[in-house]
Structure formats: structure tokens, C-alpha cells
Amino acid sequence: MISSPDLVAFTKDDDFRDTYVEINSLPEQFSLPLFPYAGNANPWAKASFAKFTKDFILISEFSEQVGPQPLLTVPDDPKAWGTFDLNYFSLRIMSVDYQASFVGHPPGCGYPKLNFVEDSKVVLGDSKEGAFAYVHHLTLYDLEARGFVRPFCMAYISSDEDKIMQQFQELSSEFSKASECLKTGNRKAFANELEKKLKDLEYTRTVLHKEAELQKKENGCYSTQAIEKANELANVEKSIYEHKDLLKQVTSYPNRKMKDPEFLPYEPEPPSEPPGADQDQISGVSNPDHPSDNPSNTRRPSYTPQFIKAKSAKCFDKRLKTLEELCDVYFFNQTMDQLTQIEKIFRGDLCYISTSQIDTALLKQQKITNFLFEVFRDWEEEPEKPQYGEKLAPNSDNSSNPAPSNEPASLESYTSCVETVLIKMEQDISEEGQQETESSLCGITQDNSEECLEADMKGSVSSGESIEVLGTERSFPAQGSFIQSESQASLQVHYPEVVRRKEASKRTNSQDSIEVLSTTESIIPEDLRASCPGAIYEEEPYNDSSLEHIYQSPASSQRLVDSGMQDAGGFGKEATEQADSACCIGQEGPRFEEPAPELGQECSDNGVVKVAPRSSRAGEQAPGVDDGAPAALLSYELNLIYLSDEVSRLDLDDVSDSTSFMSASTSSERAASPFLSGNPITVKHKRKAGQGALRFIRQYPFAQQAIFSLLSGRTLVVMGADEGKVRKLVSALSIFVPNLGKYAETIKPWLTSPFQITDLHSWKLIGLHRVASPTGSSMLFSLNRYSRYISILDADHKTLRCPPYKGTLIGRLADHRTQIKRGSTYFMHVQSMLSQLCSKAFLYTFCHHLHLPIHPGEGDASVASRRRGFLQHQLGISGEDVKIVQFLGELIKLYYLQEPGKGATPPVFRFDYTTSFLYKI
Amino acid sequence: MLRWLLGGREAQGPVEKTTVLFIGEEQPKNLYTELQVLKGHFDMVRFLVRIDDFRFASAGDDGIVLLWNVQTGERLHELRGHSQQITAITRFQKHSAESSCPMILSASSDRSVSLWDADTGSRVQTVTDLHSSVKCLLVLERLDLWLSGGNVLCVWNRNFELLCKTEVFNDAGITAIIELPKNCIAAAMDKELIIYRLKVPASESESWEIQEVKRLSDHQDSVRALISVNDQAFASGSHVGELIVWDSLDWTIQSYERVFGDTAQADLQSEIKLISPKQNEMSIQHLTSDGEYIIAAIGSGIYVYSLLTKNVIVYRKTAHDSDVLHTLKLPNGQLISCSEDGSVRFWVLQDLPPPAEHASSAFFGMWGFGRANKQPPNQQVKKGADCLVLRSLELTGDLIGHSGAVQMFLPFNDSVLVTCSTDHLIMLWKDGERESRLRSLDLFNKLEQNKGL
């Protein structure tokens, strides 16, 4: 029935495994693959005959009732897939599930084991349909499902096979995140479900017990009814035992994902919460029925246990839970947001994606000059990240209590633990902090605590070897000495008591994990490893977190520190990068495609609001942050501090102005990305500005002089009575304005009040309202007064007053006879010219002898002549162009000298005394 | 320029209607090409005091004294304690046995004087509830004491113990004090200069005494400026433009110039016919001297008086658009002036080529002061209102940045100029070339620290 799919096994070939090497020449990974020559074929002709036009994401399920079925698509629009047969394709993709959804009684276990399997990732092609898909299989737990598992898959479907193949790593890491999000929600929901079921069972047991007693009294011990009842009771007892075990398994699953800050903002806590409430939870004596104590109970305030019949309903009779129910609405929505984001990231032509990835990767390498003409991006916020990680470390770790327990008595504490993680962040941290200090005082390292454990263990079968293996795997140093492994270390150190209390049960499991490490890890490909039954139990993710973070691990902030590059891409990209260089280009791809607000959010995701969930949730919640609303989560408070700090630096007026200018921008942008709000012209605007700039240089013969003013750091004031006209000019010219660093915005699109000399420090392009009023005249007064510092472009009379320009550089940059027709092309042209200029400025800045004497006796004059010679002969820069390079050089110096921790220092205001001329059309 | 801005399509013409000279935007000799604005004061900033080579203090009407690093523009300390505006501030080098740390002595309208440690920013000493607010301070480092002048002249030691004081002047207060040789002090009070002699106690049992020795009542109006020129002379200027140079030892008049009174007639004949001299245009706001010349800020003009030739050798009657508030002559011959019009200007005293031919000697005769043989060269006549005898005062550059009157400026090492203004701002004007070099130095240091990029 199922035709054998032409399955493309993804093997980790060398081309994907290339380690990231420092490059001097244009490295291999930055070159685009050539289009295979095929006669006169148009490379842009649609080669495939796919029935859909755009890529989309499909989520399918292998339903135990109806078989493979499509659940939903992203974008959720029938046009997305057109006539493409989703049902058929679901069948195809679900048929290649390599993950072992085995649940049963593994040898040596008397009760069912949950299998925390890894997701499997395959690339699948259907040549008949012209569809290729990256397929990501995952398993969710459902108590009512057969074997407790529900196989799902997410597929990225494209008509371009190359795209899937080449973007495999990126797709994989992105989908892993989404999958992890779903699974986290699912574990939580599953734990809740189990808890309910346990209550039911316990209730049933008491009822049955009573009945049995009654039967015994009435009919004697050996009556059939009594025996029946006793059997029933025994069954229930067994069932309780099994369920407890399941619950234990699911809750003990280290919520690795919780380390990822993006999952933190779960739900604001009820503010009325008594402060000591969760203390109970930590110590394991919490009462799950306490309404304010257990947030899950807050939502479903009281659960009345039900009597469970001995024979449960046939599985075909019942309604299966929807994905949303399975995964907890919050996590489901978050996943949907992520998927939407993924769809956007990979939208467009492969060539385009690759180019922008290469572009980003290259820009990222220009650490010193990339601030000049690029829109503020993630690399701007790099310094903040480690701090975040440190702050968040205790936060995230409490989720990952790894030790399962044999004691049923502490089950509640487990569930509450799961929920505590999600909701009780704030109080936990204080607890944590205490523990941490305690432990650090005692100097407990992981090894110590392990030894403590060992001492506590009664009859444990653990061997010395196993400890060693674990030790090396996770490499626990003393906490604090290595930030690198802080997440791991603190994970243990924060829980010495808990771990000890839970005794050594995990020891037994760890044996399994050793087996995994020693046997399966190296041999069995990752996709198949999960299918080794019994190999990966509770302990498995442990290894995973250290070994396999290529796909799975959250971008734990600690690892950010760890990876020296600290590339701010976030979201596991660092981890990925360690393994594969191609991945470092990760998710910046969509920049050019995304509308401005998303860009803001992306930026915020990557740095500013690191803890916020990625995608638009950040936007939704950001206003709350901005208002200082009771964001009870600690992470949010951290943000709040940070944000308020950042925001306060900005002139509120400017902010409001810039937001009002950008119709698309929302309040979220202001709140979430202060840097961006300080820089109202985003990439998208800049691209649009290309057309305007092209028009400007064609229309105004003095365009070169105006551009010279901007590039040499002389403020250009565009003056006019009509706001639209002025704004248009400002945005057209904005592509030529170098950024001054993090300090402030450099462009003031519309100003209606007189400016001060301090404004000229940061504003390099001002749109000024010409009015005939007292304000207008005072404005003109300030223009007149500061005329030596500014160039004035009169939009109404088409005149420009500025210093003369005699150079060649801008002639190439802005030639009014240019053959370039399209705005975006011109924008590219300008970008390439400017980056060339940047590298010249970089060379100029970092040549020691151009600025400082070679030997002490050398005078300034000879240095100056050497400088001139270098500029002229090496860089080919003469005349007024020198001023541009010098100005950019000063900016680079200032940027380089800026202390990362010290915050932004105001830019120096440089000028020179030259005569201005009046240019007319 | 302004007309062009207002929308006129015609080319920009010489719109400067005032007679004040306009240097334009091309200023090759102006090396201040970098600007840093220091914010911190909430009210007018009136005083700048140099502490050492890299620090200065600023004070003004908000009662706060701020200490700044002149190189980085970093605010080092904020000296809060005065509740009202600062009326006088001076540097007070404390010579103790252990060390000599720079101190700041500040007086305020709240009738208190405080001593601050410039290194720590803490208040070391303070005296409150004085009889009147202190208008001027004088530190006599030689005797390790300081004097405060208000309605009463008090002598304090460095532990803020009152040693002695004069009688109380009810109608007027002392506006300026200078030190004269032989433990004498000259104090300006309204139209008079009072010479005091400080009696240093010979033994422990004796106490300090201050005695009035002489009153000099030669000024016709209140004395606005009082400076000591050198060991032999000191000078005072009055509200009506009288400049008197006194002998420091016997307190007799060496020279008397009534600057504006004599020139008024001549000016009426020359360019500024319509403007009759007003009182404030004659007022001497500030005097400064380098021992050889006395520079007087009179109205909106600058006058340079030579002690050698005992006459005004060069002047600019309208050096600024508005009153000149502070002037200074640098050792390199450069003259700096700041004004209420918000600008700072640089002047150079230039020797002129020998006069080629004589013009109307009567025209410039009034500048002779009994030295009619000095004839101005012809080219100066053509130049306009600027008349000089031996030299010319050439404008070499100006600094425009403040939006209020520039109260004072303070040069540091020829490469940094600090200005303070009524617009609450302090500006650091720096030599852009030098700053660029310094930044390069920092850059390569950091590069070395980081071991490469």
C-alpha cells in the first residue's frame, strides 16, 4: 500500500561536519554552489512540477484510530499547499518514522517504561509530487493512547530538494527547538494527566477496599465475589504502582529545555501568592491540592477523583486528545509561533537564503567595523549575554532535577517540581541562591556530591567506572571556576539535598547510560539510536545535553560563554556552530525578508529580551515589561531592570517620534529592542531607501556634496515645509549615515523644535520643519548659529549649503548617470561600496605607524606625511575623501575602545572649520 | 545666511549688519576641532577653577561644585553642601606635613564657606552663619591662611579659625581682594580701594591683626576689577572705564587711563556715529595681566594696555556682539575672550609693518595719551574702526557652541579649553588632531592588551 518512498538518508558527511576554521581567504562555506549547467536551461525556471507554490510546514499524526492524517499547516492557509495532497503526503512522511516508539516492558522491568526517544530527522522526497520534505518525527505522551505514545511529525515541505539538503542543519536545529517546546508542554500535560489518574486510582482503591471488606464480611474470605474484588484491588494496586512509576519517569525527565530562557515566561504568578508557599514544594511536603500552591490546580481548581471501572473503554470509542490538549495551550501556541517563524526564515529561494547567511556570517566576522553601516543586530548585544546566562543559570537549573525516586511518597514533590519550574521562578531563585551559597561554602562540587551520593547509597551497583564516565561526560569542575559548565555544575550543586534525599536510584540508571555512551554512541547513527530499546532511559538526556546538543540542547546561556565566539545568534546556534560551521549562519537569514517589527523581535530575542519566547510572544509581553506590570517571573524582572536602564537612556520624545514614524512599528519594538527604537531606519527601510537615494542622486546635482557631508560626519539638515517630502529625503539619505555606535540614534527624521549643539553630537541627519512662526525663527537662529557644524539641504528651494567636495570616492558611490535602475540594486551597490570603505577605514585605523611615531624622536609632521602617503598610495584616497576615512577611523577607534561593561559613551563631536558654499540646481 | 535660510533665493550675501568683525568658517589657526559637552549643573555655571593638570572644578548658581577630568570629561566628584549659589571659589593647596593635596575653597550666598578635598570629594571644613555672604576669597599660601571678603574682611587660618577681622561695612561690601607685598592687602569696596596690613604675630601669645592703612579714592565710580600685575604694580578698573595702575609699595597712581571717555568723541566721528556711549559700554568687566600687558574687557571691546609704554597699544572696540566677560592672554601671545554673546574668540597681537605713510593724525590723535608722535598706519584706517598704535589685534578663530553667555574659560596645556556658560553647560574644546592621536595610542595599547584583534 505504501509505496517505498525515495528516502534520502541524511548522513553526516564531511561537508556538513566541517569545523569552523579561522579564515583568511573567502572560505569554502561562503561560496555559493554553482548552478549545475544544463544546456540553456533557465536557472529560475520552475524545474519541479509541485502542486504548491510556496514552502510550508505540515504537522501530521499517525493516529491510532485513522492512521496518518494531516493536522495543520503553517501558514494556515489552503492556498499554501494548493492542490497538494496532504493526506497522501502525511502517509508518506509518517511511514518513515525511525524513532522507536516502543513502550512496553523492557527486560528486567515489570512495568511499562517511558521511552524518552530522540526525534528523528529525515529528508524525504517524492519525485512524483515534486515535493521534498525535511521530516521531523517526535513522540508525545498520552495516557489514553496505545502505549502511551502518539507519534507526530513536523515536515518542512519544499519543491526544492537542494534547499532542504543544504539547509538541513538549520532546519534541524529550528525544528528541534519547536519540537522541544512541544515535548516540554506535553510532559507537563502528561504529568498532570497522570496525577489525575493517580488520584482516580487511589480513590478507586479506597472504594474497592471498602467494598472488599464489605464482601469479606458478608460472604467470607473465599467467596468468588471477594476473590474477584481482591483481584480487582490487586489490579488497581498494580496500576497505581505503574502510574506512579510513569509519573516519576516523566517528571524526572530532565527538562533540558528549561535551561533555554525562551521557555521561562510561562504565566505570571498570582500576585497574592504567600511568599512562603513554595518553600513547601521545594522541601517536598507541598500539598498539591493547595490552590495557590500548585498552579495547575489554580487553573482547574479542584479535581474530584472518579471511580475507574476495571475495564476501560475500547480505544476506538474514545476521542483522542488534540495536539493542543496534549501540549498545553501555552506551549502549543508558542510552538506555532516558532513554526511561523521557521516558515519565514526559510522563505524564498535557496540562493537568497544562502547569500544572506553568508552575508551575515561575513559581517559577523567584521566585528570592528560592522557597526558602521549595518543596522544594529545581534552582535551588538553580545556583551550582555553572559550576564544573562549567569543570571538565568539558577533559574533554569531547578527544572532539571535529574534524580528519579523510588519513594512514592515524594511523587507530589515531583509534580510540583515540574510546575514549580514553570511558574515559581522567583521564589525558587532565592531558595536556589541559598542552596548555592551553602553548597559553595562547603565547596561541594559535582564530584563531591556524587561521592556524597555514593556514601548514601545502599547496595548500589554502581561501579567506579560509571562515575568516571559521567564525570568526564559532563566535566563538572568546582562551581564558579568554570562558567563553562556552570549549568551542569549548578544543576547538581543546587540540589545537593534533593539529590541526596532521592538517594542513589539514578545510579542504577546510569549504568544504562554508560552503555549508551560506550556502545551505541559512536556506532549507531543518531537517528537510529533511539530505536535501541532500553538504551536510553531517564538518564539519556543527560548524555544528550553534553553530547548531542547539536540538535537538542537549548542555547543555554552558559554555553554562550563557553563558546568563545559568543555569537549572539542564540538558540543553540553556538552549540550547533561548534559542530558545524555552516550552522553559524543559522537564523539570520530572514532579516531581509522580515518586516520591521519582527526584526525588532528577533533582535530582542537574541539579546535584549533573551528570556522572552521567541517570535511574537515577545511582542505581546513586552508592553507589560515596559509598563512595569507585575511580571512576577524573575527573568522578567531582570529584563525590566535592563530594559528600563536602556530605555531611560533614550529620549522619550525621540522614541515616540520614531515609532510614530514607522507605522509598522508597535510598542513592542520600543519595549523589546531599545537599540532598534533608537535607530528608526531598519534594513527594510534602507532597502526601500535605495530607490529614494537613486532618485536623489539623479535629481540633485549636488547629491555628492550632501553624501560627503553625511559620510564625513557633518550633520545634514534637510529642511522643508512638507513633512512627507522631508521624511522621504531623510530616508533616502539614511543609507549613507554611519552609525556612531550604541550611543543613540543618528537620524532624526522629523524635528519641529530648535536643536541644540548637544543634539548635533548624535544626530547626523535631521529632517527639520520649516515654519513661519516664533519657533521657526528660533529654529532658523539655531541653524544660523551652528551653521559651521551643519550642512543644510533646503527641500523646498532645492538648495544645499555645505562644504565643497573634491574627490573620487563619492563619484563612484553616487553617480547620477548610473545605469542602475532598481532601488534594491542600488542599495546593494551602496552597501558594497560602503563596506569597501569600511575596510579601508579599518586598515587606516589599525596601522600603527600612520598615527604614532615609529621612534620617539619622530615628529608629528613626518607621521602626517606618512599618513597622507598611505592614504594616497595604498588606499587610493585623496582630497576630501581623506576626511571620510578619518571620520570613519575615529568612529572605529571609539567603538573599539568602548568598554563593554561601561555602557555607551557619548560620541565625540568633531568638526572642522571650512567654508560652506551654496549649491543650487 | 539668515536671509537665505528664510527662503531668499538669492545667493548669500554679507548679512552681518553689526560692525563686529566676522571671521567666517575658514579658520585654519583654530585647532579646537573637537567638542565635548559636560552636563551636570542645573543652573548657570559661573566659575571654573583649575585644580591640577587634569582636573578642574566648576561652580555656579545651583550651589553645586563639580569636579571634572579634563581629558575624559568624566565627572569625578559632586560637592554638595551649599544651599545657594556659589559666589566665590578658589583652589587651596593644603600643605600638611604628610602631603599636599589640592583643596577647593568655596563660598556661597547661604553665608557659608566650605573646604573640600579634591581627591575624595568630601567636605573637610565648613563655616556657616557668617555675618554676610562672602563675595571674594583670597588664599595666602605663604602664611597658610585665607581671607574672605563681604561686608567684613575676615582672616582665617586653614583650620577655619577666625584670626581677625575688620569692622563691618554696612553700606557696601568688599568685592575683590588682592595680595600686595609686605603683608598688605588691597580690597575693592565700591569706589574705593582700601589697603590693609596684616600683622603677623611674632609669638604665640600675640594675635593676628588687620589694620587699615590707606584708602584710595581716585575712582569716580565703583571698582569692578582689581588685579595684581606684578611685584611693583596692581591695577583696578571702574564702572566708567577708568583704568588705574598703582604702585604696589607706596600705593600711588602710576598711570590713569579713562579709556572710553577719551575715545567717545573720536568714535562718534568715525564709524559708530549713531551709537552713543552708554554706561555699560564703558564698564571694565574684567582685567587680566601677564606682567607686561594689562588686558581690559571694556563693554564689548578688548583693550590692551602696555605697562612698558604706559598706554593702550591696541584695542578692538567691538570685539564681540555683547559684553566681554573674561579675557586671558596666553604665553604664546594669543588672547582669548569670551562674551555674553555666547562665543569665545581668539586674538593674536601682531606686530605691524612700519607705517608707510601718515594719515590724518588728528583722527587718531586721541589715542596718543600724550604720545602724538605715534601715527597709525594708513592701512588701519582703511580697515575700519580698529585703530592701533603699534600692533594689531587679529581675530584668528572663534568657538560657537554655547547658547548662553560664556561666563568664563579655562585653558589647559594649549590643547583643551574649558568654557562655562549660563546655559548650564560646560564645554571642553579640544584639539582634534591631538585627541585622535591619543585615541590611537589607546587603541594600540588595548590591541596589545587583547593580543591582537
Helix content of chain A: 40-55%
Q: Compute the CA-based radius of gyration of chain B.
A: 24 Å
Q: For the residues shown, what is the average pLDDT of chain A?
A: 63
Structural class of chain A: alpha+beta
* Strand percent estimate of chain B: over 45%
> Which structural class fits the helix and strand makeup of chain B?
mainly beta
So what's the overall shape of chain B? Answer: globular
Shape of chain A: elongated
Biggest sheet: strand arrangement of chain B? 1-32-31-30
Number of E-state strands of chain B: 32
Question: What is the helical fraction of chain B, as a range of percent?
Answer: 10-25%
Largest sheet of chain B, in brief, is: 4 strands, antiparallel
Q: What is the percentage of strand-forming residues of chain A?
A: 5-15%
Terminal Cα separation of chain B, in Å?
47 Å
As residue ranges, the low-confidence spans of chain A are 1-23, 101-106, 256-301, 378-681
Oligomer state of the chains in this structure: heterodimer
Number of helices of chain B: 6
The overall average pLDDT of chain B, rounded, is 80
Protein name (chain B): WD repeat-containing protein 41-like isoform X2
InterPro entries (chain B): WD40/YVTN_repeat-like_dom_sf (IPR015943), WD40_PAC1 (IPR020472), WD40_repeat_CS (IPR019775), WD40_repeat_dom_sf (IPR036322), WD40_rpt (IPR001680), WDR41 (IPR040102)
Keywords (chain B): Repeat, WD repeat
WD repeats (chain B): 38-78, 79-126
